[in-house]
Amino acid sequence: MSFLSATLARVKPSPTIAVTTKARELKAAGKDVIGLGAGEPDFDTPANIKAAAKAAIDRGETKYTAVDGLPELKQAICDKFRRDNALVYTPAQVTVGAGGKQTLYNALMATLNPGDEVIVPAPYWVSYPDMVLLAGGTPVIVEAGMESGFKLTAEALEGAITPKTKWFIFNSPSNPTGAGYTRTELKALTDVLMRHPHVWVMSDDMYEQLTYGDFEFCTPAEVEPGLYDRTLTCNGVSKAYAMTGWRIGYAAGPVDLIKAMGKIQSQSTSNPCSVAQWAALEALTGPQDFIAANNATFRRRRDMVVEMLNAARGITCPVPEGAFYVYPSIAGCIGKTSEGGTKITDDEAFATALLEEKGVAVVFGAAFGLSPNFRVSYATSDEALKEACTRIQAFCAGLK
Predict the structure, then answer these.
(1) Is the residue at 59 inside a domain?
(2) What is the mean pLDDT of residues 344-360?
(3) Residue 281 is part of which domain span?
(4) Residues 163, 108: one domain?
(5) Does residue 381 sit in the same domain as residue 272?
(6) E-state strands within 103-230
(7) Do 86 and 173 belong to one domain?
(8) Do residue 161 and residue 239 come from a single domain?
(9) Which of 236, 242, 290, 375 meets the CB 3.0–4.6 Å disulfide criterion with 176?
(10) Mean pLDDT, residues 177-197
């Protein structure tokens, strides 16, 4: 009998973390590697946020807090939802966790029973299906391909719902594609959900503030108020505020669900880092002007990466509405052989050969549930992105 839990056999390590770790190891060994796998901004955390953390330390704010968040931070989160999303919550409807991932995991652990199904559109963030499996549920993967802009259609959602469906996980703008749903597109989905009152909505809005051009963000409970009582609206400070390492995420929803999530957290991590919570309070209540400046940089990088990847032979790269990822197709590369002799049988072979032969680390599409593609994070310097895309062009040009 194995000492390890059988639960572990149902899940796999995060491929995005694996790619980032591999790139770091190769760099440490002296290899010339450009890593495009990490999903975090290369900007530093704003000075006012860091100052708030230092001030909290100086005040002695280093003790336990309430299990699921400081009252002051919960109130700031309520204010944010009212201001930005026209959603009215009380602090009792808010939970704060050690990153957005923990809030999603807590919700699944608190609600799923064996046999419960969770609809996960693909491409998906790599952790969604595995968290469902860890919580004892069954992920139901529904493809949303490039022909639909990587967005789930109402017909596909309707077709995936069964009497066993408990959650629908929604992510816009998306990791890994950057695709953002317009209000009209989202309304089509919420109309479907209104016909199935047993299905709850988990809306992962982590990239809410990272959008470009005329695109306007919206979230399910805002678009369809009838879903308010069965929606968990999730967000955090990691991406827009360049605070990935501070590990603060939050969510708002029905009181009973929030209490159940708090029970899970009380027996796992207990409260998130006290100092990080005070920093998050400053993030949500302090100056916001740097977000637009950072977005301008991201948009410039996006446009450069899309143009250069579309110039690579065999690659097609759509223009995303938000986040800081592109998700190009390599359909034109499948079946060819690299200069180093690797047969490009799938996107994992493509990514492996690209790393070994050109020193560019990307995450292969199968990790996100849709192939043949790969994900590029353009949350790194212009110089690194230009060099990486030049190497990708050279790699593709050498395929025969």
Answers:
(1) no
(2) 95
(3) 64-285
(4) yes
(5) no
(6) 117-122, 138-143, 165-171, 200-204
(7) yes
(8) yes
(9) 375
(10) 98
Q: What is the pLDDT of residue 138?
A: 97
With respect to residue 53, please indicate whether it lies within any of the assigned structural domains: no
> Alpha helix (H) ranges present in 33-146?
47-58, 71-85, 100-111, 127-134
Same domain? For 23 and 106 the reply is no
For the record, the structure tokens of 51 come out as 């100052």
User: Which of 248, 264, 285 is a domain's end point?
Assistant: 285
Buried b (16+ CB within 10 A) or exposed e, 187-201: bbbbebbeeeeebbb
> Over 90: is that where the pLDDT of 11 sits?
no
Tokens representing 210 are 């990272």
Q: Are strands 117-122 and 165-171 parallel, antiparallel or unpaired?
A: parallel
**Same domain assignment for residues 389 and 329:** yes
- Tell me what pLDDT residue 82 has: 98
CA distance 241 to 208: 11
**Residue 251 shares a structural domain with residue 333:** no
Residue 351: both structure tokens together:
């990514």
The whole-angstrom separation of Cα 146 and Cα 124 is: 13
Per residue in 208-243, pLDDT (tens digit) is 999 999 999 999 999 999 999 999 999 999 999 999
Residue-level pLDDT at 1: 67
What is this structure's pTM? 0.95
Q: Please, what is the average pLDDT of the chain? A: 96
Which two three-digit tokens encode residue 116? 């419960």
170 within a domain of the structure (yes/no) = yes
Q: List, in sequence order, every beta strand (DSSP E) within the chain.
A: 34-35, 94-97, 117-122, 138-143, 165-171, 200-204, 231-236, 249-252, 325-326, 360-361, 363-364, 374-377
Residue 19 has pLDDT above 80, yes or no: no
CATH of the domain at 330: 3.90.1150.10
Let me know: does 370 contact 347? Beta carbons within 8 Å: no
Residue 231 sits in the same domain as residue 322: no
Please state, as a whole number, how many other Cβ atoms lie within 10 Å of the Cβ of residue 287.
11
The more confident residue out of 119 and 12 is 119
pLDDT over threshold 90, residue 178: yes
Structure token pair of residue 96: 């704060």
Give the pLDDT mean for 292-301: 97
